Structure formats: structure tokens, C-alpha cells
Amino acid sequence: DWSLKQWWEHMEVRASYVKHCIPLSLPVSWDILRPVITALLTWVFNSIDYGASTTAYGGMVAYSASGDTVLWSTASQGVLRSQYSSTFASISGLPATALIASDKQNDNYFYAGYASTFYVSSNNGQTFTAGGSLSGASQINYVIVHPTIAGQVYMSTNVGIYLSTNFGSSFTLLTSALTNVYQIGLGVGSG
Fold this sequence. Notes:
Helices cover about 20% and strands about 25% of the residues. It is built from 2 helices and 12 strands, in the order H-H-E-E-E-E-E-E-E-E-E-E-E-E. A hairpin with a 5-residue loop joins strand 2 (about 70-75) and strand 3. Helix 1 runs antiparallel to helix 2 (about 30-45). The longest helix is centred in the first third of the chain and has 18 residues, at about 5-20. The protein is globular, with a radius of gyration of 21 Å.
């Protein structure tokens, strides 16, 4: 169980070794890097969710919009939830290994998909219910939420890509030209 001081001392030893291996013409000195590394290590130690299980593993993680709630769809213990770094607890109503995502603007909403069923939580991941139908789809491959528009959810399936603009209450097939899409990426442009 290492403290930040122990990590820093460990980094000092490694840095003194590296300093002798890197050419002196390097434009950044160790004195400039020290506060950056200290801030990074402080962030890492303060970001640990101490409620995490020591037996659960794998899967995927979704953080609430404010970052205070964590959903973890584990490979070994189903879907778990922790809020304010409390102990992770099982979520009933979601199948093990469900695909999960969080709304990036509205703290109350989490989404999940499993087989052909879409699930939605409007109470910060405490409970989930079946959401809108994905007409014709038999397999959900990916769930992603728009980074700046609350309630805008995309689902890739075996028959195409679906979009919901109402927090998963209903879905529209955007395109059937792309089938068996396994991942979708969304980002924010410069404009």
C-alpha cells in the first residue's frame, strides 16, 4: 500500500537514472517536469474508487455525467454500481456483461444493451427498465451517447445504426447500409 510520498521517492530514483540517459540538450528539465508528475500522481491517487471489488475483473466502465457514480459491467460478477466511492453493489434487472454507457450531460441517465434489448436508467443507475424497441435488430453491438446533447443515444446492431433523441424512449433506424457495426465514435468539432 504505497503512499504518494513513496511513489514520489520511487519516481525520483527512476528519474535520476533517466536523467543520466537522456541527452542534456533536451528542452525540458527535470525541475519543470517535477510539478507535472506530482499533479498527475495526486490525481491518480485521488481518483481511485476504493469501493472496487478485489475479485471482479474485466468488462467496461461508465461514469455518470458528474463523475460521482460508476457502473461496471464486469466479466465475472455482472453489472455493479458505486456512488461516492462506496462499495460496488449488484444491479438487478441487467444481464451480466451488458454493454453500458452514461449520458454525458444528464447525471440521472445510464443506458445498457444486451442481445436485442435496450435498457435505460433515469435514477443514476440504481434500476434499469426496458427502453425503446430496436425494430428488426437481434443483436446490439455497441452503445454510445452524444458528448454534448443530453438524451441522444446511438446503438449499432446487426441490422444497422439506431438513434434515440429522447433518452432511449424510442429509436429510429439511421442507416441499414452499415450492418454489423461493432463500434461508433462521436466527438466534438471545433465549431
